[in-house]
Amino acid sequence: MPPNSPPLKIVVVGPADHGKSTLIGSILLETGGESRSKADHLYDVCEIRDIPVEWTSAEAAVLVIDAYDSVQKQLFRHGDLIRLLGLRQVVVAVNKMDMVGFDQARFEAVKAEIVADLASIEVEPSYVVPVEARSGANVGFKSLETPWYGGPSLLWVLNNIKVTPVDNSRLMTKAEHQGHKSTNITIVDHKVNFENRALLNGHRGGVVWLTGLSGSGKSTIAMEVERQLFLKGWQVSVLDGDNVRHGLCSDLGFSPEDRTENIRRVGEVAVLFAQAGMVVVTAFISPYRDDRDRVRAIAPEMFHEIHVATGLDECERRDPKGLYKKARAGQITDFTGISAPYEVPPTPQLSVATVGRCVDETVADVVRYIEGALSFEGSKRG
Hints:
The protein is an alpha/beta fold. It has 2 domains: 9-175, P-loop containing nucleotide triphosphate hydrolases (Rossmann fold), CATH 3.40.50.300; 194-381, P-loop containing nucleotide triphosphate hydrolases (Rossmann fold). Helices cover 39% and strands 14% of the residues. The strands form 2 sheets. The protein has a 5-stranded parallel beta sheet with strand order 2-1-3-4-5, with helices on both faces. A 5-stranded parallel beta sheet has the order 7-8-6-9-10, sandwiched between helices. It starts with 8 loop residues before the first strand and ends with a helix.
């Protein structure tokens, strides 16, 4: 590159734990002896809300996609981030190729999907590069693991990007966003605290989050848990996925971004109820781990994740609403388990089986857990 050309400011975009920091480290390792590399200024961004002022000066983006994960789930918010930043120079790094055995077919499938999805928001990547950030494969050198890949290394692409003007006028930075919030809203403290409510009710408030496939039994379990706890004098209520979509979330569909917003709204409402001393039992597919983790992060000590672990075959056999049949026929898009992913909770507080058991047995497991975790005496012991 010309000796007097300024370094390129690059933003590295992608979900948490998909290898952004590792990729940045690999790039910097490869450029350690090149003081004039265009990849000198690299910024790591996970979410739209994470953007500080200085990152709005980025001139190009590397979108990191996990070769092993769902492209659709990874893309929707991070594609929007690139669009909001007004960037036209975009390179996609399909990372963790080792997790798919450096398989060409998987790479080509991911590439086709990512190019099509980015096109829908008027973003066209200049290159899509298969990489393995930990070993540096196709980062600074062409890897022998991908003899089928005929394109350049990622670093070559970054060093040969031609800067074009960006339009980030639509972007509100983190500082602006926080300044806007702090100017207009404040926290109003309650005079009745959480412990006061627990002493009066005989139990603490909490969010008992039932997650599982459609037809797994979430709503049936939740409603019976509510009934049994109510008869024992507990302050308890159910937030059910179908019911919420008739009101609070009636404006949302089932695209990945709408699913995320649906769970965000429900999570905020559930925590408000729990802070008021109620046990809130929710029944939502909530297929994405990131979405459930965001609800947990609102009030970690109140969140109790329960996986209703009914398998896809059994859920499809039951098919109480006929939705699986419609999904198989192509009449329903973005249907969890068929045309959209479900991410099983890795470490739920409780996992309950429903196959070969009556409803009362499964409900008893959930009630037993809630009483142990949230009864006032149980809470004090825990």
